[in-house]
Amino acid sequence: MSDSKRLLSRREALGGLLVLPALAGLLASTTSIAEAKSSKASVKYQSHPKGSQKCSGCRFFQAGKTPSAMGTCKIVEGAISPNGWCTAFTAK
Ligand code: SF4
Predict the structure, then answer these.
(1) Is 88 near ligand 1, meaning CB less than 6 Å away?
(2) Could you read off the pLDDT of 75-88 as tens digits, one per residue?
(3) Rounded (10°) CA dihedral 41, 46, 49, 53
(4) What is the spatial distance between Cα 55 and Cα 92, in angstroms, rounded to a whole number?
(5) Number of domains in the chain
(6) Ligand 1: distance of its center to the CA of 12 in Å?
(7) Given pLDDT bands bounded at 50, 70 and 90, which one contains residue 33?
(8) Alpha-carbon gap, residue 61 to 91, rounded angstroms
């Protein structure tokens, strides 16, 4: 193998080693962005229904241990009342 080919192979190998951590970092940051939830204030969360709309009827609601217990929301942070409501309400 000539010196130029050996040098190129070493460069390619080092380039690959540098790209892998960069890709891992990009994937980690993308995942954390996807998992970020909105604050209650940003979606005007309230602990009571708006008309017939309430969290227990929303596709993003994750019920607590009982139907009346506080649950969570897939897109809004914190404890969520099954009788709550926010501007992101989306019927099941
Ligand atoms: S998106 Fe809003 S209305 Fe729906 S469950 Fe979450 S907090 Fe409740």
Answers:
(1) yes
(2) 999 999 999 999 99
(3) 10
(4) 10
(5) 2
(6) 50
(7) low
(8) 10
pLDDT band at 14 (very low <50, low <70, confident <90, very high): low
Q: In the structure encoding, which two tokens stand for residue 71, read together?
A: 């649950």
Ligand 1 and 71: CB distance under 6 A: no
Q: What is the mean pLDDT of the chain?
A: 82
Enclosing domain of residue 14: 1-36
Structure tokens at 88: 């992101």
- Say yes or no: CB of residue 85 within 6 Å of ligand 1: yes
Note whether 75 and 91 are same-domain residues.
yes
Nearest to 47 by CA among 91, 82, 88: 82
The reply to whether ligand 1 has any atom less than 6 angstroms from the CB of 81 is no
